[in-house]
Amino acid sequence: FVTCKKRKVHSQAELDEKIITNYISDNHLNATATGSGLYYVISTQGTGAQPNSSSNVTVNYKGSLKDGTVFDQSAPAGISFGLPGVIKGWQEGIPLFKKGGKGVLLIPSALGYGDRATGSIPANSVLIFDIELLNVN
Known about the structure:
With 137 residues, the chain is an alpha+beta fold. The chain has helices at residues 12-26, 88-93; strands at residues 32-33, 39-44, 56-64, 70-73, 79-82, 102-107, 127-136. The longest helix has 15 residues, at 12-26.
């Protein structure tokens, strides 16, 4: 008879979690998990208004992949947008900050672009954003 070795299949969420936790460890970050797969680091608390998931905000940011490749960056003055129109990781993560707050969002692919490649971002990519919440409009 033939014996088949069962191959352990990891879900994309499990792979993303491992990528994020390795990144946190490698970079000595004190990150907090939200339970959705998102991790965040608040390096500067901020003292102003705190947005909600439907707020309009102005954010200075740099987006990179786990290998450090920068795929997008705002001008220092930031970019303004409504949170309902952005990726789920930002809809959940930006409201964790107060105006003037700075930190990092570590976004699993399911809360980013999922299994779709977007511009220079490969499919199933973990996204790392250095952010500063400049204004809650």
